[in-house]
Sequence to fold (380 residues):
Amino acid sequence: MSAAALERIVVVGNGIAGLTAADTLREAGFDGELTVVGDEPHPAYSRPALSKALLLDGNDLSSHRLPPAGHGATELLGVRATGLDPDRRRVTLDDGTALPYDRVVLATGSRARRLSDLPEELTLRGLDDALSLRARLARKPSVVVIGGGPLGMEIASGCLAAGCDVTVVSQGVPLVLQLGPYLADVFVGAAREQGVIVVETEAARIEGGGGNARVVLNEGRVLEAEVILTAAGDIPNTEWLAGSGLTSKGAVPADTRGLVRRDVAAVGDLAAFPTARGVRRVPLWSSAIEQAKAAARALVRGEEAPPLDFQSYFWTEQFGLSLKAVGHLPVEGPPEFVHGAPGGSPALMRWSHEDGTADAVALNYRIPIPRLRRMTRAAA
Fold:
């Protein structure tokens, strides 16, 4: 079916993956009926800003906002998809509506993993979560953050900047699984120097309730705080696809163009796609954008569309440090310093591999991303 013959495309999900897919469908030549479904009542926004600028920007509440969508789709916001029938080509919504389609984009993302059902346990996944946390921080409460990954450490940094006493509970050294030991040491050192208490433990759970929840560590030690926030990973939103035959191991596997089948694309946090390290989910903002572009073009152009040429890009801002990384994280061993020196900032670092490629990291170093990408290629 050519682009001219396509009449209806439904994009399920209004995050950055869904927004990018809708925009790219138009750029690829689709001019038919386009519908975007989003379970949040808000227009698409920048999710990375929620744990960075939005917690720090004083009276400015605009850091998460994106430019108005230009795709001209019918947007159904505040409604949730509850089912997909790929044979009849129907998406069912929680208000009973059935949306027919010629092509569909699955972009329902993921949700925060929780450790309990207690209302005292907070998570930071959506805009409403961030605004609620921001309001709580105005009272400068004591905070325990469970999770030592990038999100947990960014939240801890924001809470600290708001004047809170902050404890991070992490299974092992924070950030080591995501960045590697060298870079993790830099960030954890900065956190501790600024007053964050880091507790490394194998497990933690949340008990209590009734306004008196507490964190219980594996060895029995109890941590009490006015705010308990969990940042312990995510769970892909695939339950609505039960019975569709499209899911596997909690995700939706897609090919190198982001297609699950000719008329179905999967992009963003719920999609697993081929990478240099196997078929896997890559729940990053930049990954969602690149996946959505490739998949939208493939839905319209078929095999004429180029496959996804994925190169991981990651950034974080916390404790006065800004990191941009291109390549495969975590990195092992000490880096080569292209600029700067160990213990110094700014620094431009590279970890080289036997095949001539490399991973490149900029720490408090202003460098265009294309140049950082070039540093990772063979014979750069």
